[in-house]
Amino acid sequence: MESRILTLITVSLLSLSAIVATSFALAQDNPIQLRQEKMKVVGKSIGTVSKMVKGETPFDGQLALAAFSDMQSAARGYDELFPKGTETGGNTEAAPAIWSDRSGFEAKHNEFLVVLDTVTETAPADTVALRTSLGQVGRQCSSCHETYRLKK
Ligand code: HEC
Questions:
Q1: Which residues lie closer than 8 Å to 81 by C-beta, 6 or more apart?
Q2: 144 lines ligand 1 (CB under 6 A)
Q3: Measuring from atom 2 of ligand 1, which residue has the nearest CA?
Q4: Nearest residue CA, atom 40 of ligand 1?
Q5: What is the pLDDT along the chain (152 residues), one digit of tens a residue?
Q6: Does ligand 1 have an atom closer than 6 angstroms to the CB of 145?
Q7: Is the CB of residue 112 below 6 angstroms from any atom belonging to ligand 1?
Q8: C-alpha dihedral, 59 to 140 to 135 to 53, nearest 10°
């Protein structure tokens, strides 16, 4: 009886690890989807901050900091999700310039990380401070999209 339960547990653990391994492999195999998911997080986070700056939601320094931190985590490693062979497909909006000017793209990505490092140092004290941070971050979006994201 006991050994049957043990076998059962072992079998379910094995299939669980197989599922985990498969979804990891899928994400690895699908950089287009992964990079789009990362940008969705970035977009969602900037939405949280913009609403606060506009006064549509109450000011909350910790929540703003959390949003910038989410953005930072999503941005880390973003530039590695553009291997050869992912120039098209999956409804990608990645512009050919990413492949023809990789160092320019990496520099832009790096600038974005530097700004995110600054805005995640401490929670903003008030809306004025938050507006400044939002301005700094927002400039990064358009400055990269201009060259490296297709306008659809
Ligand atoms: C270093 C370059 C870079 C920076 C900086 C950047 N983006 Fe992007 N973004 C891209 C690229 C490239 C795509 C298209 C990727 C694809 O479709 O494969 C994209 C796509 C998106 C998308 C569409 C995601 C989807 O649904 O597929 C959103 C939303 C977005 N970016 C928001 C932002 C916001 C907001 C910021 C600034 C806070 C930002 N991005 C900063 C390069 C950048």
A1: 31, 32, 34, 35, 38
A2: yes
A3: 144
A4: 141
A5: 566 766 666 666 666 566 555 555 555 579 999 999 999 999 999 999 999 999 999 999 999 999 999 999 999 999 999 999 999 999 999 999 999 999 999 999 999 999 999 999 999 999 999 999 999 999 999 999 999 999 87
A6: yes
A7: yes
A8: -30
